[in-house]
Design brief:
The protein has helices at residues 40-47, 72-79, 97-107, 113-126, 142-155, 172-187, 199-205, 223-228, 233-242, and strands at residues 2-11, 14-24, 29-33, 55-60, 63-66, 82-85, 160-164, 192-195, 208-213, 216-221. By secondary structure, the chain is an alpha/beta fold. The strands form 2 sheets. Strands 6-7-8-3-9-10 form a 6-stranded mixed beta sheet, with helices on both faces. It has a 4-stranded antiparallel beta sheet with strand order 2-1-4-5, with helices on one face. Strand 1 and strand 2 form a beta hairpin. Helix 5 (142-155) runs parallel beside helix 6. The longest helix is centred in the C-terminal third of the chain and has 16 residues, at 172-187. The relative contact order is 0.17. Bound molecules: adenosine-5'-diphosphate and magnesium ion. Adenosine-5'-diphosphate binds at residues 11, 14, 16, 36-42. It is found in: Cell inner membrane. It is a peripheral membrane protein. Residues 2-239 form the ABC transporter domain. Keywords: ATP-binding, Cell membrane, Membrane, Nucleotide-binding, Transport.
Length: 243
């Protein structure tokens, strides 16, 4: 369902992604690990064209796009295929939880407001926030805000949800409730690409782990392969430190 071919990204002279290729099947949970500054966020952002890749092709769902020759309409189509969960939630501060989740349904998918709000409510109930529908982000804990962030990504109806270190900014006490929502999504076979330092989550939930370093995919495989039997020295060193 997702195919990334020969993706590269430069910021000026700095090559951040170097010839990245990988595929993700529908329903697959892929976890990306690696040191900071390695290009993990940039890779996720390129998948959604929040950053424009320098070269390479991206295919997600019914969108196919080439970095060199893409048209504005293709970018719009590609963006509809995925949704983002950010480290810092990035909720609209002046909108309630319900409005935050309904937003994309109304603006992107042109669903009538009543119906969009009903759908948004059902999703917030699912992430355990039925009593916070009309509350603004500033009145929510970090864990609750991130659950709104995930609910918003679920509402966007993309093929894949992209998570960029969704628990890194949270106080430790809120991490588990966010991981629980992600596990539920994984259980329902929501296709996900998750950048995280939560190695236990990766071990338990990932179908596949990708280890990135220095703009390259160094190694990928099942959690067992990557964590218990890494092939490359760089993977061994990282996993040893991380576990
Ligand atoms: P990671 O998520 O693995 O920590 P990033 O993708 O955030 O890594 O960053 C990879 C490299 O790209 C870093 O050296 C970072 O400084 C650089 N970088 C990221 N975004 C930009 C940008 N907008 N402009 C210039 N350099 C950037
Ligand atoms: Mg990052």
């Amino acid at each position: 369902m997702i195919k990334v071919s020969n993706l590269s990204k430069k910021f000026g002279d700095l090559a951040v992604l170097k010839d990245i290729s990988f595929e993700v099947a529908k329903g697959e949970i892929v976890v990306i690990i690696g040191p900071s500054g390695t290009g993990k966020s940039t890779l996720l952002r390129c998948l959604n064209y929040l950053e424009t890749p320098t070269t390479g092709q991206i295919h997600i769902g019914n969108a196919t796009i080439d970095a060199i020759s893409h048209k504005p309409k293709e970018v719009t189509t590609l963006r509809q295929q995925s949704s983002f969960v950010f480290q810092n939630y990035s909720l609209f501060a002046n909108k309630t939880a319900l409005q935050n989740v309904a937003e994309s349904l109304i603006t992107v998918w042109k669903i009538p407001a009543q119906e969009a709000l009903a759908t948004a409510k059902a999703i917030l109930v699912k992430v355990g926030l039925e009593d916070k529908l009309d509350v603004y982000p500033s009145q929510l804990s970090g864990g609750q805000q991130q659950r709104v962030g995930i609910a918003r990504a679920m509402a966007a109806k993309g093929e894949v949800i992209l998570f960029d270190e969704p628990t890194s900014a949270l106080d430790p006490e809120w991490v588990d409730e966010v991981l629980a929502v992600m596990k539920q999504l994984a259980f329902e076979k929501q296709t996900m690409i998750v950048v995280t330092h939560e190695m236990q989550f990766a071990k338990e939930v990932a179908d596949r782990v990708i280890f990135m370093e220095d703009g390259f995919i160094v190694e990928q495989g099942s959690p067992k392969e990557v964590f218990d039997n890494p092939k490359h020295e760089r993977t061994k060193a990282f996993v040893k430190r991380a576990l």
